[in-house]
Sequence to fold (349 residues):
Amino acid sequence: MEKSMYLRNKTLNFNVGNLPFGGNDKVYIQSMTNTKTHDVKSTIEQIKLLEEYGCEIIRVAVLNKEDAYSIHEIKKNIHIPLVCDIHFDPELAIIAIKEGADKIRLNPGNIKDPNKIKEIVKLAKLKNIPIRIGVNSGSLPSDLPLTKEGIVEASLRHIRILEDLDFKNICVSLKASNIDLAYEAYKLASKTYPYPLHIGITEAGTSFNGLIKSSIGISKILNEGIGNTIRVSLTDDPLYEVKAAKIILKELNLRNDIPTLVSCPTCGRIQYNMIPIAKEMENYLYKINKNITVAIMGCAVNGPGEAKEADLGVAGGNGEALLFKKGKIIRKIKEENIISELKKEIDNI
Fold:
């Protein structure tokens, strides 16, 4: 099999906001808001929550001029790069760029007026912002087959329009709902052109099926050394997308600043209410940027052994738990104090 020429650390590079994008092994976590963009208050609130949980690039839909003119106020109140998703209407792209977008998602082939494309590119150059070309297997041109070659050719048609205007700050996505098709398309793209790639499995489903499908597909692609940013696309709260992306990158050893939670499967030996404790601690760890392992164990059978390998952990008893720290028993904790005591210990590591 022909080896990819443009792995993630060999692509062209540029900035997305303040982030160095492409040309390195950094894979950024991104998501997309599901608020109405012109509802500025709700949009800002959602973005700030996603930031708190580790989102590094955020995309908003720009459907009309009200959305486009909201970009300035949104941008002022968030801390991560803002991408504007635009289709068909070149005026929306022009307004969004002027209002402060850090990147736009645009398919130039959908814009019929070549002068408008030139205007968009001229503005993007002036503001030094990139353009993402997003190809979706469900909306290929009618003359192209639904194959990896067809998907990559669709992206090339858009790329050539920008290249002819001497614009190369381009990011490309080639999403499909079929895992194998997406995998093969991204591999072919990484052999074909040097642009950074945005990875994802589109229309993957809800937070159960979609998480499984996205994890398999995204991991296959990332393991090839391909991909500079990922979005886990789910029919659910975008917070799940960010959480899933963090775990994928951690388990593939692409990030070392994400905590690990170890927790045992439950059984009849458990004598304390472990499941809610494990879930709350898991949620808390998403907000922590530390390379630590925390163990929440059910009983003394496996608990002390697993907790011994962790930086911090508990093994439950009857209404209480033993607190372990780097293999040593520290003290007993009453069940009602487990969460608060663990949070204090984590904050002090």
User: Anything to note?
Assistant: The chain is about 40% helix and 20% strand. The longest strand covers residues 328-334. Residues 148-163 form the longest helix (16 residues). The chain has a mean pLDDT of 94.
